[in-house]
Amino acid sequence: MTVIVTGGAGFIGSNFIFYILKKHPDYRIICLDKLTYAGNLSTLKYVMDLPNFRFVKADICDREAVDKLFGEEKPDMVVNFAAESHVDRSIEDPEVFLRTNVIGTSVLMDACRKYGIIRYHQVSTDEVYGDLLLDRPEMFFTETTPIHTSSPYSASKASADLLVLAYHRTYGLPVTISRCSNNYGPYHFPEKLIPLMIANALNDKPLPVYGKGENVRDWLYVEDHCKAIDLIIHKGTVGEVYNIGGHNEMRNIDIVKLICRELNKPESLITYVTDRKGHDMRYAIDPTKIHNELGWLPETKFADGIKKTIDWYLNNRDWWEEIINGEYRNYYEKMYANR
Ligand code: NAD
Ligand code: TYD
C-alpha cells in the first residue's frame, strides 16, 4: 500500500506518520508538505532515511507538482492533513486559508480522480459545527449537526468538507471525512494553547488567557486521533463522516492552572487578555458512530496524556526553542543543500 500523507511535517500529520509506519511497516509513506511556518522537517528526522519513506516539499495547490508526484507514486490512499490551522491567524488574514484549505483540497482530489485511488481521507475538525452553549451540557456535536461556522478557519474547513462530499456524489470518488476535537501531545506547534502555555511557563513569561478563560474544548491525545484515522481509512464506509472525540471537556483556565501546578509555576503568571473575535464557547463531540461502527475508543486519559505531553516538552526543549527562535526554518536548507 502506498499512502500520500499531506501536511506530515505538522503536528498531527507527523504523529500519524510515526503511527502508520509502526503499525504498517510494509506500507510506503510519502509526505507532501509545503513547510509553511507550521511545518518542521526536523520533526521527521527519525523516519527520513527509512527506505519506505519519502519527503517531498510541495504546495498542495500546485497542480503540476501534485500531478507529478501522483504520476511517480501511483498512491492507493491520500490522507490530507495539510492546512492552515490556526484560528487567530485566520482572523488576521483569511485568504491563505481559502487557498490551502479549499483549493488545495480540490487539487488533491482532482489528482485522485485522474490516477484512481482506493481512498481519499479528509482530516477535518469539530469547528465546522460552530459552538455549543455552556449551560446546555447535554448537547453534543453528532455527524448530523448542521454546519455553522464562526471563524475564517472553520469556514474554510467546512467548505473543503462540502467539496469532498460533492466529489463523492458527482464523481464517485471514494472519500471519508473525520471531524476531530482539539488535539494535544508531542510536536504541537507552540502558538496553540497547551504548548504555548508550557513554553511560556518554563520561560517564566505571562500566560495569555483570552477573555475569562471559560471557553471549553474537548481534548484528545493525538495518538488516539491517529488510531481513529487508521481505522477509518481501512474499515470506514466510503462517503461517510466520522466524529472523533473523547468526552474530555475542559475550561481553558483549568488547563492553564493545571500546567502551572505540574511545572511548579505561580498562577500569577496568568494574564487575562482581550478575547478572540467570534470566540467559540464550547466544543463537545459525540463519538457514538465511530465507536459503534469501528470499535474506536480513546485510550489515553487526560490526566496521563497531559503529563506525557509536559514531559515531552521538558525533554525536547531544542525542538520548541528552535521554533521560538526561528532556527527551525533553516533545517530544510541544512538537510537538503547537499542531497
Ligand atoms: P499544523 O498547522 O501543525 O500542520 C499543518 C501542516 O500542513 C504543516 O506541516 C504545513 O507546512 C502544511 N501545509 C500548510 N499549507 C500547506 C500547503 N499549501 N501545501 C502543503 N502543505 C501545507 O496543523 P495540525 O494541528 O497538525 O492539523 C492538521 C489537520 O488536522 C488540519 O487539517 C486541521 O484542520 C485538522 N485538525 C486539527 C486539530 C488540532 O487540534 N490541531 C483538531 C481537529 C482537526
Ligand atoms: P487553540 O489552541 O488556538 O485552538 P482552537 O481555537 O482551534 O480551539 O485555542 C484553544 C483555546 O484556548 C481557545 O478557546 C482559545 C484559547 N487560547 C487562549 O486563551 N490563549 C492563547 O494564547 C491561545 C493560543 C488560545
Instruction: Write down the secondary-structure element order.
Output: EHEEHEHHEHEEHEEEHEEHEHHHH
The CATH class of the domain at 2-188 and 220-248 and 281-301, by name, is Alpha Beta
The biggest sheet, with number of strands, parallel, antiparallel or mixed sense and barrel status, is: 7 strands, parallel
Category from helices, strands and their pairing: alpha/beta
What does this structure look like?
- The protein is 42% helix and 16% strand.
- By secondary structure, it is an alpha/beta fold.
- The chain has a domain at 2-188 and 220-248 and 281-301: Rossmann fold.
- It has a 7-stranded parallel sheet with strand order 3-2-1-4-5-6-11, with helices on both faces. It has a two-stranded parallel ribbon with strand order 7-10. Strands 8-13 form a two-stranded parallel ribbon.
- The radius of gyration is 19 Å and the shape is globular.
- The model has no long low-confidence stretch (mean pLDDT 96).
